[in-house]
């Protein structure tokens, strides 16, 4: 149950003291095939050049240790993959690691690397981060280059980092985003104003979110986002259409996993009317989030509404789509969103605290997360 698909050492300079990072197998590394953990792409030719984010990491002195495993074609929430194996959840090996960036979250949580890159189209960085007890960031849509990342065409997907500590996550962002201001991300955020979003989630996780805000000493108030469910459904419609467009032809190979084959066939049923309705919801939800952020610096809510289910339950057919009910809406809207490990009273696992900021305010999201991180370890 390896977090990796392939392991190697790649660095532009002396590797001796370089921080280590692993790269999701939907991101190009020159000389290595980008297979998206799919048998249908196993014979893909090696990439001719690095994705922009990979080149920037190498230029910044990072050591790349390999390509990480993932849910096939980045189209699933469990991380289960019967072709490449299922990465181990560092918090509980009996539970799913989350998808689709399962291997990246697992590698970081197991301490195999200092950091990892994943991609987040419907929660695929934040979900695995919450499952595996690590930190993961979905940047503002369009802020981090996707050149050399699959799928090529998307209105949802973002490249984002995983780390065990905010200081390391900020270092990764400084490398992959030339516009990222590390000084602002490390600035004192104790005076930040926080809106706590009312959501449907396990009572213990909701209480833990409120406790974290109190521990951090933030001024806070309750916030309603009435269109969250509509945004969740609209996000599903968009990801279905865009994933079919990118990978639907692979059904003809007969080499897809059973879950992917079924999901892609269902995605084909997404109509133009569904997409028109989804785009209308996108406009409404963006306005709602922007309005909620007009009077606060960030919004906070659980990353996942419950702890991850077991591998046995997932294999038995327990639906996991609701796992993304609190994260997928912010892919639709494009706002930056980060998942921070969250202790829950009486629980052996950590949950995830999600922090959402204004578009382009990724540094503020990181600063608030760093302040909460420090408050929770005191």
Automatic annotation (TrEMBL):
Ranges where the Amidase domain occurs: 21-366
One short Pfam name that applies is: Amidase
Q: Which InterPro entries match?
A: Amidase, Amidase_CS, Amidase_dom, AS_sf
Any one GO molecular function term: transferase activity
Give the protein family.
Answer: Belongs to the amidase family.
Put simply, this protein is called Glu-tRNA amidotransferase
What organism, scientifically named, is this protein from? Caballeronia calidae
Source species taxonomy: Bacteria, Pseudomonadati, Pseudomonadota, Betaproteobacteria, Burkholderiales
